[in-house]
Amino acid sequence: MRVRQLTAAAAALLLAAVLGGCSDRPAPARPPAPEPLPEVTAATGDVRPVDRTAVRDGGTLRWAVDRVPATLNVYQPAATADSALLAHALYPSLFRPDGHGRLVPDPDYLAGAESTPPGQQPQVVTYRLNPHAVWSDGTPLTAADLIAQRAALSGLDPAYGSGHPAGYDAIDAIGQGADPHEVKVTFRRPFAEWQSLFGPLYPAAETSTAASFNQALTGGGHLGAGPYTVSRYDAEDGLVTVVRNPLWWGDRPNADRIDFLAVAPERRIDALDQDRLDIAPITAAVDRAVPPAPTASPSAAAPPAAAPAAPPAAAPGAAALALRRAESLPGVTVHRATAASLTQLTLNAARAPLTDPALRLAVGRAVDRRRVADAALTPLGIAPAALGSHLLAGDQDGYRDNSAAAGPADAARLFDEAGWKRPDGGGPRTKDGKALALDLLVPAGSATAKRTADALTAGLAEQGVALRTVTAPADTFVKDHLAVGDYDLALFSWPAGPGPASLQRPAYAKPRPDQDGALDPGSNYGRSGTEEIDRLFDRAAGELDPATRLDLLQEADVRIWQLGHSVPLYQRPELVGVRSGVAGAGVWGFDWPRFQDVGWSRTP
User: Fold this and answer.
1) What is the pTM of this model?
2) pLDDT tens across 369-395, in order?
3) Deepest of 73, 124, 209, 600, by most Cβ within 10 A of its Cβ?
C-alpha cells in the first residue's frame, strides 16, 4: 500500500494539536495532593482587555518560542506555529478572528470589504484597503500584492512549494477597482469563506515568482507591514528581535522591542522563576513534566551504551507538581483556558472489528464524554465541558451539540444488537468466541493524555470493552500510526477556528483510491466517509448565506456522528505564564496577539 506523505506543514499542524504523550507507567505512589486551583469558564482564550492608556510607552518583552523558525512564510512546508506567531507581528492580515471564531476586518489594513449577495453570479468581493497601509519601503499595499499571492497559492503552478490553502483556486481574476486602494476579486465559483484569504498577506516582491516564494523568509532585508519589524534574526543564538516599525500608521506599539527567545518547553518554568522570560506558553512544561530521576546506588550497573533512550513516561503527579510550582512563582500569573483545538477519539473503520459501523456507534455511545473531560481538564483548573460537535468549538459562533444523532444512549443495547454479548459474570464482551479488546493509541509523554486514556479505559471497561494503551512519540505518531492505520482507537486533536467548511473537510473526506488502487485516507485517519458528507462540506464552502451555510455544517456533523467516525471529547487545554505587569497577553484562543497592545502596565 502506498501512503501519502504528509508535508512538514501539515504534520506540524496536526502535531501542534496533539495532546502530548502518555504511557502505562503508573504515577508515583501517594504523590503530594495539589492545592485547589481556581476554576475558569470553559472559554476559548484568556486575555484580559487592554486599556492602552494604562500601558506605559516603551520597554522590552521577552517571549518564549520553541525555536527560531526556518521561515516566516506560513505557506511554506517548513513553517511552524512560531512562523505564524512572528508573521502576525510583521505582516498584514485583512481579517482577524474574534473571540468566537468569526473573521472580522482588521481596520489597520482594511477600510471595508463586501461580497455580492447570495445568488448573484459571479461572486465579486470588493476590498477597500486602508490608504495609510504601506510596506516597510514606503510603497502602499495594492492589488499587485493580492494578485501575486493568489498566483503562488492557487496550485496552478507546481513550481510554487506551498500547501495551496482553500479558496485561492476559486479565484478567477483580481484587479484594481475605482482607485489604487480598491481591489476587486472575482471568483469562478462561490467561496463562502473568502474572509480567510490574504491573511497573512505578503508583498508581491516575495511571492511574484516561484524562486522568491520558495526562498526561506527570515526577516532580514525583507519587506513587512506590521507594527514591528525585524532587527535581528539569529537561529544559532535562538533569538529574533523585533522593534517598532517607524512607518507604522496604526496605534503606536506599546513595547519598543520584543525578544522572541528559543527556550525548550521543559525549561520555561525555570526561566520564569529566574526572571528570564515575561511571556511563556507552559502547557508542555506542565503536561510533560517527569519526576526527578532516582539517585543510582554506587553498585548499580551502568546501562548499555547502545541502549536507545525511551520517551519519558507520563506522570500526572509530576504534572501537578509542575503546575503548583508555576502557580507559586512570585510575580507570574498562569493564564489558562481551552484552546481552539478539538480533542477527539478517532475509530479506525479500516481495521476489524471496527469495520462494522454498528460496533463503532456502540463504542462511541459507551464513551462518557463528561467523565473524560473532567479527568483531562479539572486538574488544570479549567472547568470541564464535553464537546458535542466535530466541527465547532464550544464557544464558537454556531456551536450545537449533535451527539444525539449517534443513536440511543443505551450503549449496552447497541453492543447487543451488534452481536457483542457480555458474559454473565462480567468481563469483556465477545462475538464468535473473540473478546472485544481494542488498542488505544496516544502520544507519548503527556499527563493529560494519560488521564484521558485512563478515564476512557475505566469507562469502556464498565461497558465490556477492554482497552490497551499504546504510546507513540510525536515524530512517529502520524507517519507510523495514523497515516498507515496502525491503531484501533486514537487520541489526538484537530484545529478549530474560522472557516470550518475548509478547515475541517480534510479530516472527514471520503478516502479515495490512489494511483496504485490502494485506499488513500489523506488526512481522514478514521478512514470512514460518504459522498453525502463530502457534498455537504462542498455546498457549505460555496454557500454565501451564513444561516444556510451553518445549517449545512450542522447536517454534516450529524452525518459524521451517525457514521461512527470519531467522538469529540473536549477542547485541548492551554496554559501561558505571564509576568505581572504585562498587559495584553495570555491564552489567545481563536485570535492571535494584537502586538501593538502588548506591553508593560504603568502600575504593576
Assistant:
1) 0.90
2) 999 999 999 999 999 999 999 999 999
3) 73
